[in-house]
Specification:
It is a single chain. By secondary structure, the protein is mostly helical. It has two domains: 37 residues, no CATH class; 34 residues, no CATH class. It is built from four helices and no strands.
Length: 72
């Protein structure tokens, strides 16, 4: 949806960048809060590692899918 509007130039590039940065900050805040509330032994906290960009590779794709299903 965001790409559709940026392609038609209804939304400025600066607004898109600000939106993405706010989303990133929100995700970081949520993950930090969850990790402080839940010890690493709990499956939710362990499976949140699926969002770690350093671990997102094609080789780990099946493992990440399993982790994301476990979160939901």
């Amino acid at each position: 949806m965001l790409r559709r509007h940026t392609g038609k130039k209804k939304v400025r590039d600066k607004a898109v960048l600000e939106f993405r940065m706010e989303c990133k900050q929100f995700l970081l805040t949520v993950v930090k809060k969850l990790l402080t509330k839940a010890p690493i032994l709990y499956s939710l906290a362990r499976n949140l590692s699926a969002f770690d960009p350093r671990e997102m590779t094609v080789e780990n794709l099946e493992n990440k899918k399993t982790q994301l299903k476990s979160i939901v």
